[in-house]
């Protein structure tokens, strides 16, 4: 059974940092490209970042570039998103996904 389970979401003040994790199971994690997307309240899904199978190539949306870092540990079947300099507009549910499967999301709230 394929599972993607996000964790690490929290309430954080503007300027703060968080690290999200996405634990994968039920498939060959090291063989698939992975993505982070987010959905802010009342808005559609918004792409955040992507990473290739070995972590050698990454991509970021302009609105997170320089602040967020995507990474993966294939030995641990885990995807990460390190978020720094958080802004109120980063408030959203963050999802990890492969081409086929999605996690349930983790809530990130940036507020003072």
Structural class: mainly beta
Helix fraction by DSSP (H/I, runs of at least 4): under 10%
Largest sheet: 6 strands, mixed
Shape, please?
globular
How would you spell out the order of helices and strands?
Answer: EEEEEEEEEE
Provide mean pLDDT, rounded: 97
CA(first)-CA(last) distance: 40 Å
Low-confidence stretches: none
Question: Could you please describe the fold and organization of this structure?
Answer:
- Helices cover 0% and strands 48% of the residues.
- With 112 residues, it is mostly beta strands.
- The chain is globular.
- The model has no long low-confidence stretch (mean pLDDT 97).
Descriptors for this entry?
mainly beta; 6-stranded mixed β-sheet; 10 strands; globular
Short overview:
The chain is an all-beta fold. It has strands spanning 3-7, 11-12, 18-25, 34-39, 45-51, 58-60, 68-73, 78-83, 92-97, 106-110.
Q: How are the secondary structure elements laid out?
A:
Blueprint: E1 3-7, E2 11-12, E3 18-25, E4 34-39, E5 45-51, E6 58-60, E7 68-73, E8 78-83, E9 92-97, E10 106-110
Parallel strand pairs: 2-10
Antiparallel strand pairs: 1-3, 3-8, 4-5, 4-9, 5-6, 7-8, 9-10
